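Chapter summary example.
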Amino acid sequence: MKEEFLLFRMSGVLYGVRLSKVREIATYPDKITSLPNNPAWALGVINMRGEVVPVIDFRRKFSATQPVCDKEAIIIAMKLPNDRATAIAADGVETIAEIDPASLRIASDMGNGLDPRYLEGLARYHGEMISVINVDVMLDIREI
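The structure predicted for these 144 residues follows.
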C-alpha cells in the first residue's frame, strides 16, 4: 500500500519524509535564534505558533559540508513522539509523492557522512534516488 512522502532537496540531493510526520512548512530562517553550546548541526530555535521548536541544519547533520541557511531556505517542522516538534532547514520542497514503503531498500554505510541509521531506506522516484529519512531517529532531541 502506497503512502505519501514529502520530497525536498538539500545540496542537490533528493530526500523524503513520511507526510504523516510533517507538521508545518515555513520560510523564516531569519527568525532562528541561536543558543549557546549547541552541536554544530543545531541552528537554534524558532517560535512556531507559540511553541519553541529546535531547528536542525540538515547539511551538517548528514555531512561535513558547510551550511547555507539563507532567506530561500525552508523550515520543515516534524511531529515526533510525545507531541514534540523539531524542524529541519532544507533548500526547498519538491513535491508530495506516493511511494510503497515495501519498496524501500536498505542503505549501506558508504563512508560519505550519511549515517545509515537516519534512513528508512532508498527509493526511486521518476528515475531519481530518494533517501527516505527516519525522522524519529534523525531528530532525536536528546542529542541536542
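To summarize the output: The mean pLDDT is 80.
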